[in-house]
Amino acid sequence: MIRTLPSSKAYTAAFNGFIILYFTFLFAPLIVTMVLAFNDSMFPALPWKGFTLDWFFGEGPEKIGIFHDKSNLRSIGVSFRVAFAVSTLATIIGTLAAFLFEQENFRFKNFFYFLMIAPIVIPGVILGISILLFANTVGLFFENQMGIDIGILRPGFWLVVLGQFSFITTIVTLVIIARLRKFDRTLEEAAYNLGANRFEVIWHITLKYLRPSIVGGFAVAFLMSFENFNTTIFLVSSEATLPINLYLQVRDGSTPVINSISFLLILATSIVAVINLYVGRRKNKRAP
Amino acid sequence: MMMSKLRTIRWSFFVFFIPVFLWLFLLIVLPQLELLRMSFLGTDYYGESGVTFDNYWAFFSEPIYWLTFVRTALFSILVTLIVLLIALPVAFYITKVASFKITGFLMVIILVPFWVSELIRVYGWMILLRESGVLNHFLTSVGILKVPVEMLYNDITMIMGLVYTTMLFMIVPLIGVMESLDDALIEAAHDLGAKKLTIWRTIIIPYSMPGIMSGSIIVFMLVLGSYLTPNLMGGKNSLWFTEQIYNQMIIYFNWNQGAAFGFMLLLLSSVIIWLALKLTKQDWRSVIK
Amino acid sequence: MQITLSVENLTKKFGDFTAVRDVSFQVEDGKFFSILGPSGCGKTTLLRNIAGFYEPSAGSIKIRGEEMTGVEPNKRPVNLVFQHLALFPMMNVHENIAFGLRRRGLAGKEVDQKVNNMLERVGLPGFGKKKIDQISGGQKQRIAIARCLVLDPSVLLLDEPLGALDAKLREHMKVELKKLQVEVGTTFVYITHDQSEAMVMSDHVAVMNSGQFEQLDTPQNLYHSPKSSFVAQFVGNNNKLAVKVHKKEGGEFYARYIDGRDYLLEGAYDLDQGDEYDMFLRPEAVVINPPAEDKKFNVMNCTVKAVLFDGGNSRLLLIPETTSEELIVALPQTKQYDYLKHGDVIKIGWNPATAVCFRKVDVKIYDDV
How many Cα atoms within 13 Å fall on the side-chain side of residue A211? Predict the structure, then answer.
């Protein structure tokens, strides 16, 4: 049953078999996608026609690799800029929110905490359309009443950033709160006692302690923003992010260039995720 | 002395509070209210815009809308249950059965697919399962199948895809609670004569309840609000309610109708989560942690 | 007397490491048996072997004459009280105690009745409805024991269950536990690193060190006649004096201490392998200002370094003449010695029968706090 309790051979074997099946199920689509990025074929399918790097470096005209695919490259650029803006904003506001909910007491705190949690239980589609509608109404109001045209309220880069920020900040807040909760507040009291003011205490003591979770929160926010589809789809203009740009190619069928993009993304996200997890675990172990 | 300290603390409170307040009110509360307001607006036969219930009337009078709605709700519950049934033994294996040497490794690699975009994961399944896909190629060349079969675009594949894309959101909270489950509790139950199933029923599941609930809520929400997986893996008849919203907003450009659908979806998710919390007597605060 | 638990030549290895080495003992029915040893000595491993959570590498365990090897923990007529009690937090007190009964297929009134009886026996009547986090440490203790006793096991195993309690409560629970055991008459096997717990409660104590039993005896015998240097150091307080043993013409053995004096010993010593010994002298066996007339009494001159006042447990810290060693001696609170102060020179003495001597070995006593 567990490590210390004896189990029958059949039970152990069945359980191990189940776990192997599960991991196969988990990794099969990813591995197949990655392997087919190197197939020398016009379609992302078997049979295997030999190894090629054309879907990475091909210059056309038949095979255009990702490094020469203007449309996909542009959307990757957009996604990077969006993700950077979202994770920077979300990390700043998320840190403030963590301090607010962990260290301050105020009326209606429970109500605000509930509001802060709400974005992760509101479907992304609804966040997308509600922000679109609201931005549109506010934009119309400014235009009709004051004759000011506010560009960021129209679908485009900044509306995408706002839409993703609205729920990713919740995740960052929860990541930072989890660590702040373990913080020994006598350290802050000691710093006050030695003459520091509130902001010196936060800067020199608390933020130093929170650094791993802030870095972790930033990485999580970056990855979530980079892969978001449901919210983004309602807020983009012609400047498509990568998932939006890939969606049509996946739906209507495309060359294995998608596999090469997937290969690079899986590799990059795995590296970021593994570093993040290992660093997080090591830091957690060191913390009291 | 006391006064000045109090003042700095009040000041810091507003530094924290104002940005958070702006975020929650400008990006969450007001847009949701706007969604509600828009859902009650519409243009009548004369082109005059005004308050109307037409958008909701359309929802209830057109079977395609409410049938999709009910279907989406039921399928979401089904997927959540399947995910839970698979995730429980996996989380248990990782935290309690696997030898200490590999648990850390398993915990890291089980999270890797979670970071890969949903689109890419769905794409992986598509090139595996479609008629010209890898699995068909394999099965025909081995001789199990004579001609390739289209395995995509049906409800079962779609359910599998939804299970796949949301699985990790159940596993992570379950691993979280099961890690804190003291082995001695299981040993004690065993020592007092309990069998495996009884230990699951009386010890492991009750203990994991907060993790089960938070995992179930997140998975349910993700499935309910999912667009890519049903759209790319489901068949012509596997309509998902988010696709209806998408059609109204993007294709018909009927934002009022889309707002009404959106609000119905929000209502549905809130009601089901509220019911689930009530039925299992869990407090939302304990579930969030 | 019937033998309830019999362990023969039990060995348990983890890879290359031998945690328990060739241990044998028997426990009679209704006795309180303790295994006392420092952390890491193998006592928990031994207990988990008896409970069935480990399979022995060699040897056998018999309960009421029945071989236990290969029998799963839940099929053995033993129950274990876990170190941190392992009370089920998702159940109330009643459900915790009823858990094992229900697993045996009992239901309804019968369960309620047994649980309520048990609650009364452990002195917590009416506690059934309470949640586990609503009751105190000492009450949890009793519930954990009740949960096992209600199944009427042949042997109740207890894995340092008092370790988590604070010192005052621990003192109290020692007495409670002994009373409970006498009342129910179940055989208890108790492991601990706290010698006082073992001494107060047990009929027999086995002192364990690096996987083996050093001595198995009554608490009185362990205290008065330890069989090894380890036992002398681990059980009770002792002064350790490095001495050289020699034999005088009269056939009596003497220990020469570094103050240059010879002290009479009881018993015979084998000096073939060197004369370096450790002499152990209990603080409470030493008399201050001994009567001069008794020639057999050993007498030592000391300087008072400090008076360590601690009520009934007060002691003197002494420095034997011409040395820089330290000795601890009990200081009876009879007003008789109130005049003693730092720097006084006094005589102390002891009956040779109260001192024991073992060949010098390097044993370290790890006393985990």
Answer: 8
**In the structure, what pLDDT confidence band is assigned to residue A287 with cuts at 50, 70 and 90?**
very low
Rounded to 5 degrees, φ, ψ at B120 are -70, -35
Residue of B182, B192, B195 lying closest to C84 (CB–CB): B182
Considering the segment(s) A70-254 as one domain, its CATH architecture is Orthogonal Bundle (1.10)
| Residues ≥6 apart with Cβ < 8 Å to C82 | B184, B187, B188, C144, C159, C161
Contact A2 B118 (CB under 8 A): no
B-chain CB neighbours of C91 within 8 Å are: 202, 206
Beta pairing, strands C262-264 & C253-256: antiparallel
| Inter-chain CB proximity A6 and C72 less than 8 Å | yes
CATH code for the domain in which residue B263 is found? 1.10.3720.10
Domain of residue B65, residue span: 57-111+165-288
How big is the A-C interface in CB pairs under 8 Å? 9
- Measured between beta carbons, the chain A residues lying within 8 angstroms of B32 are 122, 126, 130
Tell me the β-bridge partners of C155. C78, C187
**Interface contact C54-A5, CB threshold 8 A:** no
Output the pLDDT for position A256: 84
Q: Which residues of B touch C84 (CB under 8 A)?
A: 182, 184
Contact (CB, 8 A) for A65 and A53 = yes
Per-residue confidence (pLDDT) for residue B44, from 0 to 100: 63
Chain A residue with Cα closest to B7: A198
Strand (E) or helix (H) holding B51: strand B49-51
Q: Which segments of chain C are extended strands (E)?
A: 3-14, 17-28, 32-36, 58-63, 66-67, 78-81, 155-159, 187-192, 204-209, 212-217, 239-247, 253-256, 262-264, 276-281, 287-288, 298-308, 315-320, 327-330, 345-350, 356-359
| Domains in chain C: ranges and CATH | 3-233 (3.40.50.300), 237-359 (2.40.50.140)
- Domain assignment present for residue B23? The answer is no
CA dihedral C232, C233, C234, C238 (to 10 degrees): 90
Are residues B115 and A272, on separate chains, in Cβ contact within 8 Å? yes
State the helix-helix crossing angle for A257-286 and B118-129, rounded to 10 degrees: 130
Identify the closest residue of chain C to A5 by CA–CA distance: C53
The residue assigned the tokens 């129209």 is A154
CA distance B211 to B239: 31
- Give yes or no for residue A288 having a pLDDT over 60: no
SS3 C14: strand
Chain B residues with CB under 8 Å of A115 CB are 24, 28-29
- Read off the pLDDT of each residue in C61-66 and give the average, rounded to a whole number: 91
Q: Which residue has the higher pLDDT, C280 or A255?
A: C280
Lookup: tokens for C217: 């005896």
From A29's Cα to the closest Cα of chain B, the distance in A is 4
Cβ neighbours of B111 in A, within 8 Å? 273, 277
Q: Rounded to whole angstroms, how far apart are CA atoms A214 and A197?
A: 22
Structural domains of chain B, count: 1
With CB atoms and an 8 Å threshold, state whether B269 touches A93.
Answer: no
Q: What are the residue boundaries of the structural domains of chain A, listed by start? A: 70-254
ipTM: 0.84
Per-residue pLDDT band at C7 (split at 50, 70, 90): very high
Residue C123, pLDDT score:
87
Put simply, the answer to whether C82 touches B206 (Cβ < 8 Å) is no
